[in-house]
């Protein structure tokens, strides 16, 4: 995990997300606070609970994008779920505890990868040894061990010499196509508990695991060239060097101490309580009720053992177009003390979003068309024109934020995109005139733009 300062976190986020400084600062502080907490003495550390954040803002202004980038950035176990995916316990749908199980799975992946990296060198060495054994089978050994020791030593030396020679050739990459016989071992039978957890989903998982274990894949041998056998052997050796118990323990701790959960679309489960008990509202309230203990801190049973959620950081996000944060259950509201509002994007923001992010839309299209051997250039005034139009269409029809740029740009490059493989010219310059030609008629006709842009 990387321990970035708030300033560093914001700087990293700035590379992909335009504006929204308040939100960036808030998540950066929350992240840093986890690091601070880890530095505290044990007794105090247990008392410090995370300050969960609610990101509030109109659609398409970067809420989910911030979460996505944050996840890539921190290397902490992270899950992102839509709150609407859950329904109350007992109803069809995912139960909320599954998000904690997902979090542990994310932690397992992180810890396992770190372990694999740690033993990589050792595993590689062992795999090379095994390759040598396979290339120079013990059958070459003289069978008369009991004969005079002179002869035996001589044979052993000879063998060592051929092994060394072979090793040199192997290292020089001369034997990559030589075939060796490798065994892909079957999975061993291990005891598992079916009733370890009190819910169907977990049970299904255990059952599935158990079936896999009761019907172990039989070991099989196959002949593979060295280049293909090597990764198999390295993986096998690495597996043997890793202690699964240790991984499970560390992963649970990592999830408990550094886990982060992004609850997207939280506004969609904020029903008004006085809604007359209509179907969907009952369910929304139910989801909130189920979520509450997890956000407040509870213990969830997972197949890696019990996981406490007290110190998991929750980030919630929602557009809150119709519902307000105050429509959430009071207890839940109280669990998200930090509220950050994301700003509506301006025309200038749109231009920056087209130009600046590392994987900006313009760069994406340029890279895609470059695969056809086509160099596409957007002039500055073309970018401004697209930003203008996006802004204008957002005002006149529905405001969908930066998502409007996708539809606009798609229109602009449609023809080039279609013709790209057949074009005689290898360079295309798109200027403002071109953009206007493609879009003006559409943008100025409200009915048309409602459908097409
Ligand atoms: N501030 C921004 N900087 C860069 N790109 C942005 C920004 N805001 C939005 N985008 C782009 O717009 C698209 C939609 O943004 P995002 O998914 O973050 O919306 P959202 O705020 O989560 O909206 P919703 O409430 O509808 O879920 C993404 O592809 C993202 O790249
Ligand atoms: Mg979103």
Features:
Helicase, Ruva Protein, domain 3, two-stranded antiparallel ribbon, single chain, 11 strands, 453 residues, binds magnesium ion, 3 domains, alpha/beta, Rossmann fold, binds adenosine-5'-triphosphate, five-stranded parallel beta sheet
Describe this structure in words.
The chain has 453 residues and is of the alpha/beta class. It has three domains: 199 residues, P-loop containing nucleotide triphosphate hydrolases (Rossmann fold), CATH 3.40.50.300; 108 residues, no CATH class; 96 residues, Helicase, Ruva Protein, domain 3 (Orthogonal Bundle), CATH 1.10.8.60. The protein is 55% helix and 11% strand. It is built from 17 helices and eleven strands. The strands form four sheets. It has a five-stranded parallel beta sheet. The chain binds adenosine-5'-triphosphate and magnesium ion. The site of magnesium ion has 3 residues, from helix 4.
Provide a compact summary of the structure.
This protein has 453 residues and is an alpha/beta fold.
CATH architecture of the largest domain: 3-Layer(aba) Sandwich
Bound molecules: adenosine-5'-triphosphate, magnesium ion
Helix content: 40-55%
Order of helices and strands: HHHEHEHHEHEHHEHEEEHEHHEHHEHH
What count of structural domains? Answer: 3
Mean pLDDT: 84
């Amino acid at each position: 995990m990387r321990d970035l300062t708030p300033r560093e976190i914001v700087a990293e986020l700035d590379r992909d997300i335009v504006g929204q400084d308040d939100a960036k600062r808030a998540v950066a502080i929350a992240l840093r606070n986890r690091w601070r907490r880890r530095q505290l003495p044990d007794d105090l550390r247990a008392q410090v609970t995370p300050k969960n954040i609610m990101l509030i803002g109109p659609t398409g202004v970067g809420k989910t994008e911030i979460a996505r980038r944050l996840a890539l950035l921190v290397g902490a176990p992270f899950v992102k779920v839509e709150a609407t995916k859950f329904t109350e316990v007992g109803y069809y749908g995912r139960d909320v505890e599954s998000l904690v199980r997902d979090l542990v799975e994310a932690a397992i992946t992180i810890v396992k990868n770190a372990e694999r990296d740690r033993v990589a060198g050792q595993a590689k060495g062992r795999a090379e040894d095994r390759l040598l054994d396979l290339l120079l089978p013990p059958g070459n050994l003289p069978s008369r061990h009991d004969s005079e020791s002179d002869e035996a030593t001589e044979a052993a030396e000879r063998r060592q010499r051929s092994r060394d020679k072979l090793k040199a050739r192997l290292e020089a990459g001369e034997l990559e196509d030589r075939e060796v016989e490798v065994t892909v071992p079957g999975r061993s039978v291990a005891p598992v508990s079916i009733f370890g957890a009190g819910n169907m989903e977990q049970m299904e998982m255990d059952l599935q695991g158990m079936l896999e274990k009761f019907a172990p894949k039989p070991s099989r041998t196959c002949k593979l060239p060295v280049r293909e056998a090597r990764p198999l052997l390295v993986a096998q050796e690495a597996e043997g060097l890793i202690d699964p118990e240790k991984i499970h323990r560390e992963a649970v701790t990592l999830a408990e101490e550094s886990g982060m959960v992004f609850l997207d679309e939280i506004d969609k489960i904020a029903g008004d309580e006085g809604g007359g008990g209509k179907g969907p509202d009952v369910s929304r309230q139910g989801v909130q009720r189920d979520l509450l203990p997890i956000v407040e801190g509870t213990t969830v049973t997972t197949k890696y053992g019990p996981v406490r959620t007290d110190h998991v950081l929750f980030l919630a996000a929602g557009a809150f177009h119709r519902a307000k944060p105050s429509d959430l259950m009071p207890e839940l509201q109280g669990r998200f003390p930090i509220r950050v509002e994301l700003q509506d994007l301006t025309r200038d923001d749109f231009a920056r979003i087209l130009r600046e992010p590392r994987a900006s839309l313009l760069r994406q299209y340029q890279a895609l068309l470059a695969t056809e051997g086509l160099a596409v250039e957007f002039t500055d005034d073309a970018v401004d024109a697209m930003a203008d139009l996006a802004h204008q269409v957002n005002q006149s029809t529905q405001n969908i934020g930066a998502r409007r740029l996708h539809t606009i740009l798609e229109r602009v490059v449609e023809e080039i995109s279609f013709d790209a493989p057949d074009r005689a010219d290898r360079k295309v310059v798109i200027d403002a005139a071109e953009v206007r030609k493609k879009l003006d008629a559409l943008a100025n006709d409200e009915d048309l733009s409602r459908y097409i842009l």
